Task: structure prediction
Amino acid sequence: MDNAIHLMGEHATTCADFSVRAQVKSTPTDPTDPLMGRVSLTAEGPNDDGNVCLQANGRVTSQVDQCRIDVLADGIVVDSGNTGNIGLRAGVAPCMQQVDLEGNGGSIVLENGQIEGSPKIEIGVDSITLSVGTNKITISATGITIEGIEVTVEGTASAEMKAPSVSVSASADATIKGTASTEVSSSGTMTVKGTASTEVSASGTMTLKGAMVMIN
Result:
């Protein structure tokens, strides 16, 4: 350090415009000299780390190239420029919570921890994915996909699934069960078919009814 000024007590400077600039105009010959300008504000005390306060009634701006942070009276604006990214971090790994925003039309990622399978929300260019472990829900312009080890759809009053074409399939077993009664109906033609064998049974009375009943 070339120069140092030590002042005791409290001091104040009042003026209409105040600027502090650190500038290196030429490459230094001494390797210990800084290659770029640097302004440091440090507050230290005997019992604590001290405080540095930047206060304004209008705006406080911190800017590096195109990236800037504006603290306004009515909010905070973080601008990363045309291609910059923004990252928010809280906590420490592997339980750190983070939000990453990729600039120039990239994705937005929210993660709650870095352990594999931690909850994650990813907003891409044309889709949104919510995932926990191997379970995930993907919403895109073409539809919604739900994948999970176990998937439960429950309605406290009723649940309805409706579409021009509905397909329910199981690679092993499929069960349709009603606690009171179960009705399977079609306004057109209904076909019940088993490629190996088909059994229709009832512990009580069974009724087969139709304008014409054919049993072959």
